[in-house]
Amino acid sequence: xxxxxxxxxxxxDVTLASSVHVGPFCHLDGxxxxxxxxxxxxxxxxxxxxxxxxxxxxxxxxxxxxxxMAPQDVKFNPNTPGSGLIIGNENVFRESVTIHRGxxxxxxxxxxxxxxxxxxxxxxxxxxxxxxxxxNCCMLAGHVEMASGVIxxxxxxxxxxxxxxxNAFIGGLTGVSMDLPPFFxxxxxxxxxxxxxxxxxxxxxxxxxxxxxxxxxQTLARSSLPMPARVNELRSRAGEPLVDExxxxxxxxxxxxxxxxGKKVRGTAAHIS
Length: 273
What we know:
Elements: E1 3-4, E2 9-16, E3 21-22, E4 27-37, E5 42-43, E6 48-50, E7 53-55, E8 60-61, E9 66-69, E10 85-87, E11 92-93, E12 98-100, E13 108-110, E14 115-116, E15 121-122, E16 127-128, E17 133-134, E18 139-140, E19 145-146, E20 151-152, E21 157-158, E22 163-164, E23 169-170, E24 175-176, E25 184-186, E26 194-195, H1 197-202, H2 207-222, H3 227-235, H4 241-251
Parallel strand pairs: 1-3, 2-4, 3-5, 4-6, 4-7, 5-8, 6-9, 7-10, 8-11, 9-12, 10-13, 11-14, 12-15, 13-16, 14-17, 15-18, 16-19, 17-20, 18-21, 19-22, 20-23, 21-24, 23-25
Antiparallel strand pairs: 25-26
């Protein structure tokens, strides 16, 4: 049987695994849709969950965490369930983290072993991978897609519908309103001025793989050629796994690929047929 503090409020369709801990003054609301909480998940005091919401095993919700509340959209009726929120295993949500449920046919989704530091936020319909770190007060707007292994410095922000590639690094107090490819690092708002070399090494990438990423970075972010010409340069090495990964990312981009220097450059959208 779950360990539920007497002061916790549980209403509606709520299912708790036997090893779940629910601390003082927590609120679990399954009146709009089901709430399920997996084994060994701990809700410290004053954490809140609203359904539809499914939370996996081994997660930790620190005080003030709010998961599954309605999207911050003036056109969305907060009394409707929407598409809900799905959370994987072993995530940590520090104080006052907020993650909202989806409103499109697909739910907001979060993978495994992510670390959300105090005050960080993920909006409705975000899709977030595994082992990402969002430092204090980071913000993801709605519909952001973030791969795995991404690090965000404190106070960084990502515009809605942006895509963030794996092992990218978003510097503190920087804004992102363009797509940031894998391993790229922001050094200013919409400036991918460097590469996350430390992250690549820590992930076990070989020196020759890092060299490929450096070539891709110079080609995509530092070249003075028009974006279609840069993409053609990448296509000249199609068949190499890392190059193919970048090609897939770039050709799927709708918000444009972030340049490596200067201010936001108009006309850098890289949706190439």
